[in-house]
Write a sequence for this structure.
């Protein structure tokens, strides 16, 4: 009778006469495996596997024999783990130590399973019932005397219930997205039974205390109605946005009534009158029954007087702010005493009228000064503004058309701009037409030798003084040009040497920034910005930063890119934006190496025991030719067939498409070029840029092709060779 492995620890049960001469060795192995069963084991799951089987080895070390088992690896979906054989009857603590945020499902047969979320540990037992075996959550209902939790206590059910009392009379229920509910009308008490919060009914919440309830907050908002059977007192005052009084009177039994507010006091009587009384006797009215606001004396033959605080007959100042209202109407005249000023607030207006006749501001006894902090606006509804001296016209401003004319009204009289010292001329005249049209001079303007200004085409002004000439561009910019096809140069110089010329003479053209800002060469249309044959970056460490795509295109048979380094070493580096290197290209004196990042410090969950041969046998190497190169047969793979076996080797999705816009097509429907407007394509056909048999479409759907990095297959090939070598060695030693 041979040895058997039928016990739950898969130990060697030796039969009589079995293992002659090796009983001690077998016994020692069994004792070691018993110790292993009481310990901790860890087992890795193949990356992104949906199923995994853990078979406890017969008579040999195995991590799943341990009482505490931790599963590791990276998952992109939940994974069902079957513990075999299905006759094991034992207890396990199992930890889901995988990365990827996925559940693991512990199974033994067709019976019940236990799901363990990522990062959690559960105590389970296997009933060992063969094909129908089940895995049971040992702590599904756990009863303890005292439970001490040193960190967080989490209830993962959206409807978890905490029950108190031997008769379960008090419960606290969680409602997903809402909070916790205390059952019925039970109380949440503080300190003793006299201080509590209670839902007295379905619509009433009571907060009770023996002495005081303190609410400490920056703002306490009451949305509904707040009632008080006693007084409401506050040491610092009561701040209320709105007060509604159902009665008709606010009365004070003694003392003054003080209304002290930080904002406005509004009296709203629904278009009724506001009456002012003294001892019950009416003496004034504020009438607001129409669009006008009238303040009047309510007693006949009594004046309405604005009196100063000192009791004098007149007030020292009266301010009428009508910025948000209508007109201020005065039935009679308003007299301003001598040496007094009528002042307007910011944004105020003065309107003078007299029943449709001419309005006049008069200063019969002296000068009239209009002093404003902003603009002085004279609006005459399209008429002319005249200047008079003792009633006689001598000048005017004409604004009856789109032009603005300042003119002398008297024939044969000059209009003179005179300096403040009374001289015959002024030192400088500035015409700012930046937001208007042209400044037109019908006659010559005498210019001093130092200064001149010329109105140029396109609203440009050239100003010259003794040292500098200034060019001011208008809406059409400033143009510097010679006659068409002329041989003269356009010269910018301070030494007499040309720095730019249009006929190609031997000279340099230099454009540079001031060192503190970027220099931009842009084109807002669809054309390219083109640069000549060679581009030399002469700085020691030139950096080219491109936010979009760089395309290098040459004619057939022409080299696209030549990268040169003077010695061996790094030729090109690849980095994530703001991150470290993820690969590079290096060269030696005779070869090139294409490298990807592989430092051990970038990796975790490194596993060397995995099945490569089975995966390798799923690959389907093929021979084929590319459609565009029908005469060349090559060896390789179809990308979508590799994506499920070595996904990191394949980029893209099978049968994916993308939409491109503004495309020029060859006669056979293939793409000639893209990102070309229909207007530019039509223009290009006329000058021979595009062949006559090309077509233009606004949008075209094209395949978004998959690609493969066959170097990513090397680890799988290497591991398969090692497995085959191990099998060959085992066969040779048999």
């Amino acid at each position: 009778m041979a040895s058997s492995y039928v016990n739950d620890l898969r130990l060697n049960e030796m039969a009589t006469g079995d293992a002659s001469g090796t009983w001690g060795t077998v016994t020692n192995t069994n004792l070691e495996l018993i110790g292993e069963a009481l310990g901790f084991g860890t087992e890795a799951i193949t990356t992104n596997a949906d199923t995994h089987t853990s078979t406890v080895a017969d008579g040999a070390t195995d991590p799943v024999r341990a009482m505490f088992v931790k599963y590791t690896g990276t998952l992109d979906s939940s994974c069902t783990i079957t513990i075999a054989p299905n006759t094991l009857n034992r207890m396990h603590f199992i930890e889901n130590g995988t990365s990827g945020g996925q559940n693991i499902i512990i199974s033994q047969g067709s019976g019940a399973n236990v799901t363990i979320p990522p990062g959690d540990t559960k105590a389970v037992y296997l009933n060992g019932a063969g094909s129908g075996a089940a895995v049971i959550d040992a702590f599904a209902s756990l009863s303890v005397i005292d439970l001490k939790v040193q960190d967080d206590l989490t209830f993962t059910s959206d409807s978890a219930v905490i029950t108190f009392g031997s008769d379960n009379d008090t419960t606290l229920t969680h409602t997903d997205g809402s909070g916790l509910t205390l059952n019925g009308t039970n109380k949440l008490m503080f300190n003793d039974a006299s201080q509590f919060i209670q839902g007295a009914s379905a619509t009433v919440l009571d907060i009770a205390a023996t002495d005081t309830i303190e609410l400490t907050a920056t703002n306490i908002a009451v949305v509904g109605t707040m009632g008080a059977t006693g007084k409401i007192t506050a040491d610092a005052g009561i701040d209320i946005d709105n007060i509604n009084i159902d009665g008709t009177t606010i009365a004070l039994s003694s003392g003054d009534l003080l209304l002290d507010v930080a904002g406005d006091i509004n009296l709203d009587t629904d278009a009724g009158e506001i009456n002012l009384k003294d001892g019950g006797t009416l003496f004034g009215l504020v009438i607001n029954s129409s669009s006008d606001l009238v303040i009047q004396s309510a007693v006949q033959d009594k004046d309405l007087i604005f009196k100063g605080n000192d009791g004098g007959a007149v007030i020292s100042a009266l301010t009428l702010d009508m910025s948000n209202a209508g007109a201020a109407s005065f039935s009679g005249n308003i007299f301003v005493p001598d040496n007094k000023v009528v002042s307007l607030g910011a944004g105020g207006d003065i309107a003078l009228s007299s029943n449709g006749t001419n309005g006049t501001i008069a200063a019969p006894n002296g000068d009239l000064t209009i002093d404003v902090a902003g603009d002085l606006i004279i609006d005459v509804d399209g008429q002319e503004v005249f200047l008079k001296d003792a009633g006689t016209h001598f000048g005017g401003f004409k604004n009856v058309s789109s032009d603005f004319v300042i003119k002398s009204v008297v024939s044969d009289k000059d209009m003179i701009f005179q300096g403040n010292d009374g001289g015959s001329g002024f030192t400088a005249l500035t015409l700012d037409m930046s937001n208007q049209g042209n400044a037109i001079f019908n006659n010559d303007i005498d210019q001093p030798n130092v200064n001149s200004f010329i109105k140029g085409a396109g609203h440009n002004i050239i100003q010259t003084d003794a040292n500098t000439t200034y060019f001011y561009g208008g809406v059409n910019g400033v143009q510097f040009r010679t006659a068409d096809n002329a041989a003269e140069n356009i010269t910018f110089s301070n030494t007499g040497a040309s720095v730019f010329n249009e006929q190609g003479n031997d000279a340099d053209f230099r454009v540079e920034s001031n060192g503190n800002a970027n220099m931009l060469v842009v084109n807002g249309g669809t054309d390219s910005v083109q640069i000549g044959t060679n581009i030399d970056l002469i700085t020691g460490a030139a950096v080219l930063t491109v936010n979009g795509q760089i395309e290098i295109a040459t004619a057939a048979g022409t080299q696209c890119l030549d990268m040169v380094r003077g010695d061996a070493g790094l030729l090109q580096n690849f980095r994530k934006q703001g991150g470290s290197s993820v690969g590079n290209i290096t060269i030696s004196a005779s070869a090139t190496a294409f490298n990807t990042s592989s430092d051990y410090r970038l990796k975790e969950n490194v596993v060397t025991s995995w099945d490569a041969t089975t995966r390798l046998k799923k690959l389907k190497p093929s021979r084929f030719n590319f459609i565009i190169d029908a005469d060349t047969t090559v060896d390789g793979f179809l990308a979508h067939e590799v994506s499920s076996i070595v996904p990191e080797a394949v980029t893209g999705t099978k049968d994916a498409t993308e939409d491109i816009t503004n495309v020029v097509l060859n006669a056979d429907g293939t793409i000639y070029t893209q990102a070309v407007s229909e207007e530019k394509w039509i223009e290009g056909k006329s000058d021979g840029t595009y062949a006559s048999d090309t077509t233009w479409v606004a949008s075209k759907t094209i395949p978004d092709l998959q690609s493969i990095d066959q170097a990513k297959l090397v680890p799988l090939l290497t591991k398969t060779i090692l497995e085959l070598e191990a099998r060959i060695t085992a066969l040779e030693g048999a």
Remarks:
- The two ends are 25 Å apart (CA to CA).
- The helical segments are 23-37, 613-616, 639-643, 678-687, 714-733.
- Residues 323 and 348 are 7 Å apart (CA to CA).
- The chain is about 5% helix and 25% strand.
